[in-house]
Every structure is written in C-alpha cells, then in structure tokens.
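Researcher: Re-running this chain for the archive, since the previous output was lost when a drive failed. Same request as before.
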Amino acid sequence: MFRDPSGYLSLTSRYPIRILVDRLQIVIHAVALRADQAFGVTIRGHPRYRDLLIETAIAINAPLAAHTLQQAIDPDKSDLRTVFGVYVLSDRTVRPPRVGSDDVKGLAPPP
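Model: Regenerated structure tokens:
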C-alpha cells in the first residue's frame, strides 16, 4: 500500500482490516522517512527496499502494539502484563527485537 496507494481503496469497506492497515501505514511511513535520512532517497530504488520496510515495520510494530495494550490495562486492577515477540519463519522461533542483548529468544516486556 505504501508504494502503491491505489490498492488501499479495496480495503476501505472492510473496517477491521482497514484499522490494521492504517496503523501499519503509520509505522511503515516512519520507517521510510528514517531510511531516507540514514541512506538518502536513493534507497527507495534498492531492490530490497520493500524488504527493509517490512522487516523494520515488524520490529517496530510488535513492541508498539504491546506498549499500547499495556497502557490500556489498569495495573491497579489487574496483574496482567503484556509481552511481545516476532515469529521468525526461517527458524520457527519467537524473538523480541532487542538492542544490546544476547538474549534473543522468547518474549519481552514492551519498552
């Protein structure tokens, strides 16, 4: 959708899907802006640019969703805590995106 917005129109009538796509669009747009800053706008022509957007958006969306959900849970009324991780298809593991840690398997609390 980010690179071809015309595909978005077919989703506008399906509200639950549109909510998910709208949220991801914000994350993907932020990733694209940061990639432009880091590598210059020529990055958009790289053959793996789409992969960059997808992989980075996944790594950002998982903790963001967990954080948002944790904010909706009243800690004074519940012992529930959110955690997050990303399922890695290539090795069938769950990993939280973590910086500066050797502990890369399992789930993690949101930042």
